[in-house]
Write a structure and sequence with these properties.
By secondary structure, the chain is mainly beta. The protein has one helix spanning 171-178; strands at residues 23-31, 36-44, 50-59, 61-66, 69-70, 75-78, 81-90, 98-106, 118-119, 126-130, 136-140, 160-161, 163-164, 184-185, 193-201.
C-alpha cells in the first residue's frame, strides 16, 4: 500500500505552501458583526501574466474593455505585450465626460496597499498606469464605431490627448486621488467620450 506522502491528488509542490515558480496571494476580510469574515488563497504564475488591479471613476455611464473584451472585474490578467484599456462614456445632459483610472501591480517588499492581496514573496514586478500621471490616454467625441478602437494597433490619428480636468467627489474618487491618479478629459469638449489608455507589459526573465 502506498504511503500517504506518495499519493498525488491536486498536488502542488508536494503539499508545501510555497513554490519556487508561483506566488501565493491571500485575500482576506473581516466584517461586522464580529466573527464574519473569510479568506481566499490564489496561486499566480508571474511568467504567464500579471494580475492588474483596476480602479476607475467616470463622470457619466461607462462601458470598459480590455483588449476588446468587456471588463467584468477589477482584476485584469495582462500577458506580455501591448494592451489597451478602452472606455466609452455616455455623458449626462451634455456635461463634459471625464475619467480617472489606476492600473497597478506591485509586489515590492513591505508594500501593503489597501484592498490589495498579500503575497508570499516579491518577484520584482511593478506596473503603475495612472491618469494624469504619465499614462498614455487619448480620446475623441466622435463615435469611432465597430471594435477596432478597443484593440492595440488602432490608428489614433485624429484623437487628442486627455488633459487634467475638474474632478468629482465621493469615496471612490478620493481613493483614486490617494493613489496618485487625476481626473482627465478633453479640453472644451462636451457630451460623450471614447478614450483609449495604451500600455505595455514586459515580464522580463525569470525572477
Amino acid at each position: 500500500m502506498a504511503k500517504k506522502r506518495d499519493l498525488v491528488v491536486n498536488d502542488l509542490a508536494r503539499y508545501e505552501k510555497s513554490s519556487e515558480r508561483l506566488v501565493l496571494e491571500d485575500y482576506s476580510s473581516c466584517e461586522v458583526p464580529a466573527g464574519c469574515g473569510g479568506g481566499i488563497l490564489r496561486w499566480i504564475d508571474p511568467q504567464e501574466a500579471l494580475p492588474l488591479t483596476l480602479r476607475l471613476w467616470t463622470a457619466g455611464k461607462a462601458e470598459v474593455f480590455f483588449d476588446g473584451a468587456p471588463v467584468r472585474s477589477s482584476r485584469i490578467q495582462a500577458r506580455p505585450g501591448a494592451h489597451v484599456l478602452a472606455v466609452a462614456i455616455r455623458a449626462a445632459d451634455d456635461a463634459p465626460a471625464r475619467l480617472a483610472l489606476s492600473l497597478r501591480y506591485s509586489d515590492e517588499a513591505n508594500t501593503r496597499a489597501p484592498l490589495e492581496p498579500r503575497r508570499d514573496r516579491s518577484i520584482g514586478r511593478t506596473l503603475d498606469v495612472r491618469s494624469g500621471a504619465g499614462a498614455a490616454i487619448v480620446g475623441t467625441t466622435r463615435d469611432p464605431g465597430g471594435d477596432a478602437w478597443k484593440l492595440p494597433g488602432f490608428d489614433e490619428r485624429g484623437w487628442r490627448a486627455l488633459a487634467p480636468a475638474q474632478g468629482g467627489a465621493g469615496w471612490h474618487f478620493n481613493d483614486l486621488m490617494s493613489r496618485g491618479a487625476r481626473a482627465v478629459g478633453l479640453p472644451d469638449a462636451q457630451g460623450d467620450l471614447w478614450a483609449r489608455c495604451s500600455f505595455d507589459v514586459d515580464l522580463g526573465g525569470a525572477p
